[in-house]
Amino acid sequence: xxxxxxxxxxxxxxxxxxxxxxxxxxxxxxxxxxxxxxxxxxxxxxxxxxxxxxxxxxxxxxxxxxxxxxxxxxxxxxxxxxxxxxxxxxxxxxxxxxxxxxxxxxxxxxxxxxxxxxxxxxxxxxxxxxxxxxxxxxxxxxxxxxxxxxxxxxxxxxxxxxxxxxxxxxxxxxxxxxxxxxxxxxxxxxxxxxxxxxxxxxxxxxxxxxxxxxxxxxxxxxxxxxxxxxxxxxxxxxxxxxxxxxxxxxxxxxxxxxxxxxxxxxxxxxxxxxxxxxxxxxxxxxxxxxxxxxxxxxxxxxxxxxxxxxxxxxxxxxxxxxxxxxxxxxxxxxxxxxxxxxxxxx
Length: 346
What we know:
By secondary structure, this protein is an alpha+beta fold. It has 2 domains: 2-22 and 303-335, no CATH class; 34-289, Cytolysin/lectin (Mutm (Fpg) Protein, Chain: A, domain 2, Sandwich), CATH 2.60.270. 26% of the residues lie in helices and 25% in strands. The protein has helices at 2-21, 37-51, 77-84, 221-225, 283-289, 293-301, 306-324, 329-335; strands at residues 28-29, 64-67, 70-72, 93-100, 105-112, 121-122, 134-140, 149-158, 171-180, 196-204, 233-236, 241-245, 250-256, 263-270. The strands form 3 sheets. The chain has a 7-stranded mixed beta sheet with strand order 1-12-13-14-4-7-6, with helices on one face. It has a 5-stranded antiparallel beta sheet with strand order 5-8-9-10-11. α1 (2-21) runs antiparallel to α7 (306-324). It is globular.
């Protein structure tokens, strides 16, 4: 009996290590990872294809009618930053472009600074991001020397009809944190200037009318999630990253430029169960998103050893439960690793 239990524990430990070695065991997905480069690059190529589809422009970037037949052409976000900060003396700034490729509404937009960056100046109002549209926000340091900018931007995820996405009666919020330091060169990528950002999806408590009950805690988001938050994906300026959240329901792709006035582009799109969440019934878009059966299986199971997990895990776990008694539902939940499925933000 003792030997069998010991064998089960060892087997489960091996399986756990094998699962931990897979880049798809949780919702964090590195841009490239060893042997999975070929498959992952194919997946990334399709994501890039999706991200090239047309979205409606934010109001701030749309063409402006000047009258008398004159129209100021639309700016790209990069052009807008370059014009807005033509001579950025002592200024660091960031443009955040959020693109919504899902059928969900990103509503109740909220922004927050942190005690570490008390000179943030938000230059325009952040709006709800409707399905198939984009929004844009600019933040700078007001020209104050030796002060960088950092903060949090977040949206609550709603159904098309306006009802909130609920998970155990908790709301769901997509969150971006960013940091642009003051020091370091402006014209190139450098370790002296590490512009960084993170992406996360978290649960929030809601009241009877489905409004966030504790929005004041957003000031703590940056401290909690930008660098050390388990359950977020984080990257320095330059390389793009992909993040899968809520067990693959949502996918976010982010990329941040180097320099003193970087552009951060974040694309919110469907995860593996994308058929339920597409905002467009465009054949080209559907084909761009369609994953092969093997790719879907790999992404969903998150491991190349599903048979071993099922056989060893089921046999040993079942036996141990019978021998040791029961595992209370509450205790099981408490035993989970921190992250999206952990306790809500109060």
